[in-house]
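Take just one protein record:
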Amino acid sequence: MYVYANGCSFTYGSELHDDPQTRICTNNSYRWEHSWPGALTRLLGVSGAGAYNDATPSGSNDRITRTTVQFVLRNWQAADLPAEQLLVVIGWSHPARREFFVDGAFRQVVPHHGYDIRALDRLARVYRQVAWDDTESRWRFATQALTLASFLRDLGIRFVFFDAIEPNRLPDELADDPAVPGLLGGDSWIRGSDDLSMARVLRADPSNWTGQHPSETGHAAWAALLAQRLGTDLPAGPPASTLKAAGLPQLGGTRAVQRHDVKEGNLTGMRPLIQHAAPLRRRIASAVQRDPFLYP
């Protein structure tokens, strides 16, 4: 079975092999192998196992939805590969993050960051001061999750969803609707009664962490949890020759990641939001204390 994984830095594998100054990965092959998508392929125990890690640091749910649809249509279906041989695993990011097309490319926006691209920095400041709203974030996330679940289900592609950083909250109207869990994938969504996230599970053991991200041990532990959830009744993946003909690697994914965010002084732009809502103020303060690059 071929694993297509998408998400933020928790899926990408930040800090597995990064330059300590630039925070840019210096060995993509190592990262692909030791992040949870690579570890999962080794645990599946089927022939033709492989993985494509399409995540990026600070990746938004906007980007996750867009690039997942692109991969399925442009890479998998265009090569006429069997739907049953593809497994899509999504580690949803924080809903406050956004993606915008600025200066000729898609850019990820973390609300409390500034950016070295002038137009992007201006947009980010306006967004966090004027347009960010928790209700909108919840509805946007619900729409993305429902859309992607329906898209994959209609194509006959197996999928697993989980929340990477923290539990993503649904709008109250949807959270109380008994039909919604099934629409979102039923038991394909790892949430549990306590709204579990990858971060919450792995933080139970300090060995699972390196700096602000999961360590190799943490990625291996999460891969084991996913493998247990998937079970053993899994089909084989395409042979290496078929993948090569389709332009897909046995093990690969996102390579160069340009960073345009700058953190110094970014909370200045968040003050209108911080002053507006005490719960948001506490969440941002706690998030920045834990990791000023990753959250929220």
Q: What stands out?
A: The chain has one domain: 2-99+134-260. The domain at 2-99+134-260 is CATH 3.40.50.1110 (Rossmann fold).
